[in-house]
C-alpha cells in the first residue's frame, strides 16, 4: 500500500489538470482576438483621453477641470444634460410598463404592433429630427391644426428648444425601454398572478404585490440603459434643440472645445466628466436595485 | 362558535361560507372551436375528495381552471348551493389552489407566501401570525419560515404551496397535479400527507392527476375524462372492477386489451375467441354477438395454468422483477402479446398456458366512446 503511494508519488494531479479545474486551458486562447480588439480600440483611447485631460496647456494637471467648473457656460451643461436625460429616461421606462404589461400575453397582431413600436430605432436620430421639425415646427401639422381649430392664437413653440430634444429622446429611447421591459415581463411566470388571484388578490394588488416587485430590478436596469442613451444626446440637441442655449448639453460642450477651440485637454476633461456623472447616476440606481429581490422569477421547480 | 361565525360574516363576499354541495352543470370550454371540455356534470358534496383523472389533453386541467375561475366557461354554470359561481372572478370564489409548479412568490419568504391570502382578506395582524404559525406547524416547516422559496427543496416548496392554500380554510381546495414534479419516494410520502390533511382539516378537495394509482389511493370518487368528455364517475372500487368502457379499462390498468370477435351469449356471459380457444367473459355495455369487441384482462388476472390445462398457449418473451412477483410478457402463437404476473419466475422462451377466470375477462364493444 505504502509502496504504491510512493510510486505514484502521493502524487498531486498533473499541472494541466489542476489548471483545467480552475478553467484555465487552451480554449482561453480563443479570447485573444477579442481582448486585443478591446485593448486597442477601447482601453487605449480611453486611457489616452483621460491622460490628455490632465495635460492642459496652462494651469497644471487639473487646469482643464478647474476651467470647466469656473466657467458657468461649461459648468451648467451638467444640469442641462441631466434635466433632459433624467425625465426622458424616466418617462420612457414608466410609459413602457403599462404597454408591455398589456402586451405580455399572446394575441393576434402582437408582432405587427411590436414592429410598429420598434420602428423608430431603425429610423435614426436625424430622420426623427426632420420628422419632428415638420410635424411640431411653427408651420407644422400640429400647429396648423391647433390654429385652425382655434385652440391656440399663436403657434406653440415645440422645436428648437427643450421640448424638441425631449420629444426626440422619447421617440428614440422608448423602443429600447419597451423591448427591455417586455422581455423582463415575459420572464415572470404568469402562474404567479393566477396564484395571487386564487388567494383573493384583485387586479391592482396582483400587479402591485407580485409583478411589480419582480419587475423592479429590470426597470432599474432599463432606466440605466435609456438614461445613458439620452445622456450622450448630440444630434437631436443640435438639430431640434437650442444648441447654444437651453439644450447646450455636455456633448456639445465637448465638441466645441475640441473642434471650435481646438482645446483637446478641455474636451477630454468634459468627456471624462460626462462619464463620471453617468456613473454617479447609475451607481445610485444600482444601489437602490441591490436592495430589491433579484433572484428567479419562476414560481417553483419547472 | 357563534363569535367565529360573526367575525367571518363581517368580512365581505371574499369569504363565502362552506357549502353543502357544489354543482357543475354542463360545464364546457372550447379553445378556438375545439372543445377541450364538454358537458361536465358533477356534484361535489362537502368533505369529498374528488380526483379528475385522464391522459394529458383530456380536459382535466381545463375543468380545474374553470372551477377556479382562471378560465371563463364557454357554456354551462357552476353553483355553490344556491349561489352562482361561474360569473365571479377567481379572487372572489374563496377556493384554494395548489399549482403544478407550486407558483410560490419567489420574492417573498415562506411566512409571507402563506400570509398573502390572509392579508388580501384584511385579516387582523395578530390572527395572521397565529394562523400562519399553525399552517407552518401543519406542514412541518417551522424552521424554514424565514427562507425564500428558492432555498427550499421541491418537497418543501410543495408543502408551502399546500399551506398557502389551506391557511385560508377554503371551502374547496383545487390541486393541479401537485406531485408530478417530485421524485418517486417523496411522491408517496406527500400523497399520504395530502390525504391526512384532507381528513384532519375536513377539506373538500378536487385533485387533478394522470396517475391512476394516485387517484385510486387518494379519492373518494373519481371522474375519468377522455378528449374532454366524462367517461365514468365512480368510487375507486367501481372503476377498478367495473370500468364503463375499454378506454377507462385501459386507464385503470387493463393492459391486455385484445381486439377479438364476440361469440354467442351464454346466460350472463359472452364468449370470445382468442387464438382458436373459446373463452367466456363478462359483457360490459352490451356488445352484440358476432361484432368486433375488445377483451380486457388485467395482468394480475391472467394465470399460468398447469401444463396441459386448457388455455391459450404462449411463449415467454420478457420477464421483469417486481418484488413479490414478476411481470411477464408472453406472445401467443398467433402473435398477440399478453401481459401477466407470475409468482414463480419463468425463463425466457418457456412455453406456458395462459388461463383466465370468466368474470375477470371483460368484453367491451369496440366502438365505445
From TrEMBL, chain A:
The chain crosses the membrane at residues 28-47, 78-101, 113-142, 162-185, 212-234, 266-288. Residues 78-285 form the ABC transmembrane type-1 domain. PANTHER family: INNER MEMBRANE ABC TRANSPORTER PERMEASE PROTEIN YDCU-RELATED, INNER MEMBRANE ABC TRANSPORTER PERMEASE PROTEIN YDCU-RELATED-RELATED. Belongs to the binding-protein-dependent transport system permease family. CysTW subfamily. Keywords: Cell membrane, Membrane, Transmembrane, Transmembrane helix, Transport. GO terms for cellular component: plasma membrane. It comes from the Bacteria. GO terms for biological process: transmembrane transport. This is ABC transporter permease. InterPro entries: MetI-like, MetI-like_sf. Pfam families: BPD_transp_1. It comes from Actinoplanes auranticolor. It is a multi-pass membrane protein. It is found in: Cell membrane.
UniProtKB/TrEMBL annotation, chain B:
Residues 22-252 form the ABC transporter domain. This is ABC transporter ATP-binding protein. It comes from Actinoplanes auranticolor. The keyword Membrane does not apply. It comes from the Bacteria. The keyword DNA-binding does not apply. InterPro entries: AAA+_ATPase, ABC_transporter-like_ATP-bd, ABC_transporter-like_CS, ABC_transpr_MalK/UgpC-like, Mo/tungstate-bd_C_term_dom, NA-bd_OB-fold, P-loop_NTPase, Transp-assoc_OB_typ2. It holds the Pfam family TOBE_2. Keywords: ATP-binding, Nucleotide-binding, Transport. GO terms for molecular function: ABC-type transporter activity; ATP binding; ATP hydrolysis activity. GO terms for cellular component: ATP-binding cassette (ABC) transporter complex, substrate-binding subunit-containing.
Amino acid at each position: 500500500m505504502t509502496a504504491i503511494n510512493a510510486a505514484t508519488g502521493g502524487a498531486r494531479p498533473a499541472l494541466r489538470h489542476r489548471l483545467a479545474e480552475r478553467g484555465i486551458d487552451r480554449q482561453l486562447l480563443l479570447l485573444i482576438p477579442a481582448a486585443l480588439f478591446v485593448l486597442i480600440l477601447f482601453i487605449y483611447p480611453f486611457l489616452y483621453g483621460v491622460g490628455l485631460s490632465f495635460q492642459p496647456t496652462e494651469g497644471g494637471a487639473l487646469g482643464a477641470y478647474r476651467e470647466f467648473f469656473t466657467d458657468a457656460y461649461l459648468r451648467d451643461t451638467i444640469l442641462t444634460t441631466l434635466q433632459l436625460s433624467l425625465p426622458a429616461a424616466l418617462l420612457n421606462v414608466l410609459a413602457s410598463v403599462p404597454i408591455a404589461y398589456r402586451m405580455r400575453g399572446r394575441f393576434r397582431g402582437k408582432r405587427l404592433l411590436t414592429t410598429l413600436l420598434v420602428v423608430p430605432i431603425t429610423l435614426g436620430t436625424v430622420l426623427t429630427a426632420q420628422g419632428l421639425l415638420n410635424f411640431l415646427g411653427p408651420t407644422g401639422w400640429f400647429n396648423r391644426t391647433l390654429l385652425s381649430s382655434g385652440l391656440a392664437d399663436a403657434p406653440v413653440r415645440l422645436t428648437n428648444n427643450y421640448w424638441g430634444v425631449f420629444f426626440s429622446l422619447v421617440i428614440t429611447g422608448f423602443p429600447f425601454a419597451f423591448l427591455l421591459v417586455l422581455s423582463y415581463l415575459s420572464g415572470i411566470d404568469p402562474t404567479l398572478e393566477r396564484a395571487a388571484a386564487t388567494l383573493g388578490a384583485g387586479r391592482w394588488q396582483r400587479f402591485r404585490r407580485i409583478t411589480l416587485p419582480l419587475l423592479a430590478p429590470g426597470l432599474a436596469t432599463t432606466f440605466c440603459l435609456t438614461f445613458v442613451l439620452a445622456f450622450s444626446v448630440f444630434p437631436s440637441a443640435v438639430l431640434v434643440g437650442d444648441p447654444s442655449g437651453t439644450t447646450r448639453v455636455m456633448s456639445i460642450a465637448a465638441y466645441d472645445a475640441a473642434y471650435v477651440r481646438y482645446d483637446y485637454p478641455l474636451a477630454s476633461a468634459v468627456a471624462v466628466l460626462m462619464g463620471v456623472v453617468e456613473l454617479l447616476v447609475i451607481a445610485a440606481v444600482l444601489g437602490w436595485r441591490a436592495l430589491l429581490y433579484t433572484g428567479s422569477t419562476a414560481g417553483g421547480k419547472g | 362558535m357563534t363569535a367565529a361565525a360573526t367575525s367571518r360574516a363581517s368580512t365581505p363576499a371574499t369569504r363565502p361560507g362552506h357549502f353543502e354541495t357544489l354543482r357543475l352543470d354542463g360545464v364546457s370550454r372550447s379553445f378556438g372551436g375545439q372543445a377541450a371540455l364538454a358537458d361536465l356534470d358533477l356534484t361535489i358534496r362537502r368533505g369529498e375528495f374528488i380526483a379528475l383523472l385522464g391522459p394529458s389533453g383530456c380536459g382535466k386541467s381545463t375543468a380545474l381552471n374553470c372551477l377556479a375561475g382562471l378560465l371563463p366557461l364557454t357554456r354551462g354554470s357552476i353553483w355553490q348551493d344556491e349561489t352562482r359561481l361561474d360569473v365571479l372572478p377567481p379572487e372572489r370564489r374563496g377556493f384554494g389552489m395548489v399549482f403544478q409548479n407550486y407558483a410560490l412568490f419567489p420574492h417573498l419568504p415562506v411566512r409571507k407566501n402563506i400570509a398573502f391570502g390572509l392579508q388580501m382578506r384584511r385579516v387582523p395582524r395578530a390572527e395572521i401570525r397565529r394562523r400562519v404559525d399553525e399552517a407552518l406547524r401543519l406542514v412541518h416547516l417551522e424552521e424554514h419560515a424565514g427562507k425564500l422559496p428558492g432555498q427550499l427543496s421541491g418537497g418543501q416548496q410543495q408543502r408551502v404551496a399546500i399551506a398557502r392554500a389551506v391557511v385560508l380554510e377554503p371551502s374547496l381546495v383545487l390541486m393541479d397535479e401537485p406531485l408530478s414534479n417530485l421524485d418517486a419516494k417523496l411522491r408517496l410520502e406527500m400523497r399520504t400527507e395530502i390525504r391526512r390533511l384532507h381528513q384532519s382539516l375536513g377539506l373538500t378537495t378536487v385533485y387533478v392527476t394522470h396517475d391512476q394509482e394516485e387517484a385510486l389511493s387518494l379519492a373518494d370518487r373519481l371522474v375519468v375524462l377522455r378528449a374532454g368528455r366524462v367517461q365514468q364517475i365512480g368510487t375507486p372500487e367501481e372503476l377498478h372492477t367495473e370500468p364503463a368502457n375499454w378506454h377507462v379499462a385501459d386507464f385503470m390498468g387493463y393492459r391486455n386489451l385484445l381486439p377479438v370477435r364476440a361469440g354467442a351469449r351464454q346466460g350472463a356471459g359472452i364468449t370470445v375467441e382468442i387464438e382458436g380457444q373459446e373463452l367466456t367473459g363478462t359483457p360490459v355495455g352490451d356488445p352484440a354477438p358476432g361484432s368486433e369487441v375488445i377483451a380486457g384482462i388485467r395482468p394480475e388476472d391472467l394465470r399460468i395454468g398447469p401444463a396441459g390445462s386448457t388455455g391459450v398457449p404462449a411463449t415467454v418473451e420478457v420477464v421483469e422483477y417486481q418484488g413479490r412477483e414478476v411481470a411477464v410478457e408472453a406472445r401467443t402463437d398467433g402473435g398477440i402479446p399478453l401481459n401477466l404476473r407470475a409468482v414463480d419466475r419463468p425463463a425466457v422462451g418457456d412455453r406456458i398456458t395462459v388461463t383466465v377466470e370468466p368474470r375477470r375477462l371483460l368484453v367491451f364493444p369496440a366502438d365505445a366512446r
